[in-house]
């Protein structure tokens, strides 16, 4: 009986200390944070009549947050502009500064997310998307981004073949054979779009100011893609001692790797310019046994993507990477895939053989009957390798 009593005491103390640590940790991080002004007086007080941030969401936007959560959007999208040492979200144009705890104090449910299959949405309300564009994307992302793997939500709209007041033309302009359709948003759809429009960290805070992303040598660079390419230019001259054909392939591959699209990055968006990925979330490419190893496996992943648990250099990662050979809005052809794979196999500390477009074509042809959006799993790839 005494042993049972002692055991119960130990369990109680363990839970009590765990709860205390959680409470104290949260208290230290959030404390008594309240909305504040962008700048404080010298005595650290809030200036009189100053606007306070963050501001509360409208009731419609708050209801939209619940719809956003119920649809599972939080599974693929984060809402946090990462700090400079954890990524380069500011340089990507995903925010003017890193997010801080105060940004979320008025949110009943903080939907930070944990996986970036799609772009970060912390500032989607600042990206210039019209309400009509957001509705069309919610209805069917493929209308706007051909091959998008984002799930459509047609059940949130009333669909008709004729225009009526409040309807939106949802034609797929990329499909000449598609019939004209009009969509009318339901209450749920309008709530979600109102929520997305409300997501904007467009204010400075005493603890975090806007960050200037362009230095004096890059004053004339107008977009994020050029900034990234300018930071680490790869030219033929920089590839001294390398055959011209290989230097050309590596240079082309670097451009593809670094390319940034309106909805986010290609390779660089997740794996970063240094190829180190994101600890615990995105595996590294620099020194990766998957990059330096079997060519065919690497090509398969590039074409169809990879999902689920994967072990890279002895560490586990769980997530999804879309394929760029068939499922992206502008699919990469055999030469482009060969170039970008050759680049990552010969950048940073990597130095192994190149991949040719003929090798890519052979792999693509051998799996031409595979569903376009059917991502590989590690188990599938291992099974195929063992049977070869």
**Computed CA radius of gyration, to the nearest angstrom:** 24 Å
| Secondary-structure class | mainly alpha
CATH class of the largest domain: Mainly Alpha
The CATH architecture term of the largest domain is Orthogonal Bundle
Mean pLDDT across all amino acids: 82
CATH homologous superfamily (4th level) name of the largest domain: Cytochrome c-like domain
What's the count of strands? Answer: 7
Largest sheet: 3 strands, antiparallel
- What is the CATH topology classification name of the largest domain? Cytochrome Bc1 Complex, Chain D, domain 2
Spatial order of strands in the largest sheet: 1-3-2
Task: Briefly characterize the structure.
It contains 14 helices and 7 strands.
Word description of this protein:
The chain has 388 residues and is mainly α. It folds into two domains: 59-152 and 185-198, Cytochrome c-like domain (Cytochrome Bc1 Complex, Chain D, domain 2, Orthogonal Bundle), CATH 1.10.760.10; 221-387, Orthogonal Bundle (Cytochrome Bc1 Complex, Chain D, domain 2), CATH 1.10.760.10. It is 37% helix and 8% strand. Strands 1-3-2 form a three-stranded antiparallel sheet. Strands 4-5 form a two-stranded antiparallel sheet. α12 (334-344) crosses α13. The protein starts with a helix and ends with a helix. Mean pLDDT is 82; it is low at 215-225 and 227-240.
Draw up the topology in text:
Elements: H1 2-30, H2 59-70, H3 73-76, H4 89-92, H5 131-139, E1 157-160, E2 168-169, E3 182-185, H6 187-198, H7 224-231, H8 244-258, E4 260-261, E5 264-265, H9 267-271, H10 289-292, H11 295-304, E6 305-312, E7 315-322, H12 334-344, H13 357-366, H14 378-387
Antiparallel strand pairs: 1-3, 2-3, 4-5, 6-7
């Amino acid at each position: 009986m005494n042993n049972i009593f002692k055991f119960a005491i130990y369990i109680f103390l363990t839970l009590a200390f765990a709860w205390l640590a959680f409470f104290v940790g949260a208290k230290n991080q959030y404390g008594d944070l309240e909305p504040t002004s962008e700048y404080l007086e010298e005595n650290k007080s809030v200036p009189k009549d100053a606007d306070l941030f963050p501001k509360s969401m409208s009731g419609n936007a708050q209801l939209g947050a619940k719809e956003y959560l119920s649809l599972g959007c939080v599974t693929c999208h984060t809402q946090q502009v990462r700090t400079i040492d954890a990524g380069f979200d500011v340089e990507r144009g995903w925010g003017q500064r890193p997010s801080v705890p105060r940004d979320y104090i008025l949110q009943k449910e903080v939907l930070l997310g944990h996986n970036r299959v799609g772009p970060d949405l912390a500032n989607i309300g600042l990206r210039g998307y019209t309400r009509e564009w957001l509705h069309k994307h919610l209805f069917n992302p493929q209308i706007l981004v051909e091959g998008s793997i984002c799930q459509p939500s047609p059940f949130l709209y009333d669909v008709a073949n004729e225009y009526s007041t409040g309807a939106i033309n949802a034609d797929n302009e990329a499909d000449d054979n598609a019939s004209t359709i009009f969509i009318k948003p339901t209450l749920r759809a309008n709530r979600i779009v109102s929520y997305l429009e409300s997501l904007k960290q467009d204010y400075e805070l005493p603890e975090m100011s806007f960050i200037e992303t362009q230095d004096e040598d890059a004053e004339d660079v107008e977009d994020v893609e050029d900034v990234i390419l300018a930071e680490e230019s790869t030219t033929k001259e920089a590839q001294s001692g390398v055959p011209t054909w290989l230097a050309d392939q590596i240079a082309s591959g670097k451009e593809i790797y670094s390319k940034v699209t309106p909805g986010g990055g290609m390779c660089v968006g997740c794996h970063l310019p240094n190829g180190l990925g994101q600890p615990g979330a995105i595996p590294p490419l620099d020194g990766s046994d998957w990059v330096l190893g079997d060519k065919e496996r690497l090509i398969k992943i590039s074409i169809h993507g990879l999902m689920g648990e994967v072990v890279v250099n002895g560490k586990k990662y769980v997530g999804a990477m879309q394929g760029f050979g068939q499922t992206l809005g502008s699919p990469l052809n055999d030469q482009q895939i060969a170039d970008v794979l050759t680049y990552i196999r010969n950048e940073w500390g990597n130095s192994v053989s190149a991949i040719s477009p003929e090798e890519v074509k052979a792999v693509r042809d051998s799996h031409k009957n595979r569903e376009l959006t059917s991502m590989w799993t590690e188990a599938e790839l291992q099974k195929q390798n063992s049977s070869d």
